TrEMBL record:
Top-rank EC class of the record's enzyme: transferase
Cell membrane listed as a keyword: yes
Compartments where found: Cell membrane
Annotated membrane topology: Multi-pass membrane protein
Family (UniProt): Belongs to the CDS family.
A matching Pfam family: CTP_transf_1
Residue intervals passing through the bilayer: 6-35, 47-65, 77-98, 110-128, 134-156, 177-196, 202-222
Keyword Membrane in record: yes
Source species, domain of life: Bacteria
Organism taxonomic ancestry: Bacteria, Bacillati, Bacillota, Bacilli, Bacillales
Protein's name according to its UniProt entry: Phosphatidate cytidylyltransferase
GO MF, one example: phosphatidate cytidylyltransferase activity
Pathways involved: Lipid metabolism; Phospholipid metabolism; CDP-diacylglycerol biosynthesis; CDP-diacylglycerol from sn-glycerol 3-phosphate: step 3/3
Amino acid sequence: MKQRIITGIIGGAAFITMVLLGGWVFSLFISILASVAMIELLRMKKIAPVSLMGIVSLLSMWLLLVPTHWFELVVPLSFTKVEVFIFVILVLLMFTVITKNTFTFDQVGFVILSSVYVGFGFHYLIITRDIPEHGLYLVFFVLLLIWTTDSGAYFVGRKWGKNKLWPDISPKKTIEGSIGGIIAAIVVGTIFYSFLPIFPSYLTALFVIVVASIFGQLGDLVESALKRHYAVKDSGNVLPGHGGILDRFDSLIYVMPILHLLQLI
């Protein structure tokens, strides 16, 4: 527990500092975190990061991760990132034929899904921080909602939790805890909005709060399902007492793309 607290304080302080700094420093910091998260996924699949499949996976993830203006500086062509990614997918599918299924369709699917999951998740975190005027507050707002949801779900679940939410994936989570987490997020999010009205109306803010809280919990379940599938307890050990980067950012990288795709941010 002592190690967990120390890691939490140091890691939390470092992350908050980077969020406050913003700009290329924050983008570079997030790029490093995303790279570590991708390596954690590769190791779950028992793929060496320094291998053909490992390098292709990292390059695909970076393609989706980096801000568009970074991509345009490196690749001064008329192709968009998505177009290049589609081309990469077609090349990977071609490899399944060339290698006579040594490089399998299952492995291609892993590369694609992992790249989208990690790359787009952290990409939208960078994009959110870069939003003029409100970017800093939006990142803190979503972080606060996720932390509040986790805490509310934990304490309500311990006190009143009886009905399991999804026992096959996460046996300790309860329906009561999940509802308690959403209510806690609404309360804390409303207080935050009353001091910093960063949305056009409270109704919009409330929608963001509920979506972030619900999908933050789903993001946690997605990562739990991944770990169960690959029979690992934690995604990694880079954060002593907390596991890996994916263990700590699973909710955030799931929520951020959804908020953007729903045009709430």
